[in-house]
Amino acid sequence: AQTVTQSQPEMSVQEAETVTLSCTYDTSESDYYLFWYKQPPSRQMILVIRQEAYKQQNATENRFSVNFQKAAKSFSLKISDSQLGDAAMYFCASLTGANSKLTFGKGITLSVRP
Amino acid sequence: NAGVTQTPKFRVLKTGQSMTLLCAQDMNHEYMYWYRQDPGMGLRLIHYSVGEGTTAKGEVPDGYNVSRLKKQNFLLGLESAAPSQTSVYFCASTPLAGGAEQYFGPGTRLTVT
């Protein structure tokens, strides 16, 4: 069974500052993928970033980057130059298996102070 | 290209009533999923389908049934709604296995009184 743990329920960051959201996971699979999804108040689930487990290089998408530590089973999201529009709930998720099933963490609510 | 759509967006049911949630995608995706989101629980997989005519149970399937008679549609049914099924329901689809992104619908907020 896959598990994804997000231990911090809430975080706050000052606008223009950097914040890191933590995530750990557990899987017995050798082939898996990791994701961060953003859910703003509109409720829409938006993909932020994706990481293939077999790639050592950390994924980056503009102001968003990950720190993927495979041995430690850690997958944190760094948001640089935080903007008011980054305020949302963020979910970490792992994907394994031939049926591409996603397992989500409980989410973290990020607030951005102007 | 509408992506993934869900009908209805909101619904209130009384305990014991039945209803069907419709998910439709116009991207010709093979795989479709139903999740429920509860406060403090993240999203949990209810049922999924890997192709037309196939369905399988996810993590929390009890009290729900599904059907995938057409490739573009994935229906989630509640035969006898219970207050514990009050939740936000999301449908998602992906074109294939192997780590491709799942595309989510806008969600349906269901309240069972």
> What value does the average pLDDT of chain A take?
94
What low-confidence regions of chain B span 5 or more consecutive residues with pLDDT below 50? none
The first-to-last residue Cα distance of chain B is 36 Å
SSE sequence of chain A, one letter per element: EEEEEEEEEEEE
Explain the overall architecture.
The complex is a heterodimer of chains A (114) and B (113). The N and C termini of chain A lie far apart (41 Å). Chain A is mainly β and 114 residues long. Chain A contains no helices and twelve strands. Chain A has strands at 3-5, 10-14, 19-21, 24-26, 32-39, 46-52, 60-61, 64-69, 74-79, 88-96, 101-104, 108-113. In chain A, strands 2, 5, 6, 10, 11 and 12 form a six-stranded mixed β-sheet that branches. Chain A has a four-stranded antiparallel β-sheet with strand order 3-9-8-7, with no helix packed on it. With 113 residues, chain B is mostly beta strands. Chain B has strands at 4-7, 10-13, 19-25, 31-38, 42-49, 56-57, 65-67, 73-78, 87-94, 103-104, 108-112. In chain B, strands 2, 4, 5, 6, 9, 10 and 11 form a seven-stranded mixed β-sheet that branches. A four-stranded antiparallel β-sheet of chain B has the order 1-3-8-7, with no helix packed on it. Chain B is globular. Classes of the chains: A mainly beta (114), B mainly beta (113). Chain A binds chain B through residues 4, 6, 9, 32-33, 35, 42-45, 47, 50, 52, 91, 93, 95, 97-107, and chain B through 31, 33, 35, 40-45, 48, 50, 56, 58, 88, 90, 92, 94, 96-102, 104, 106-107.
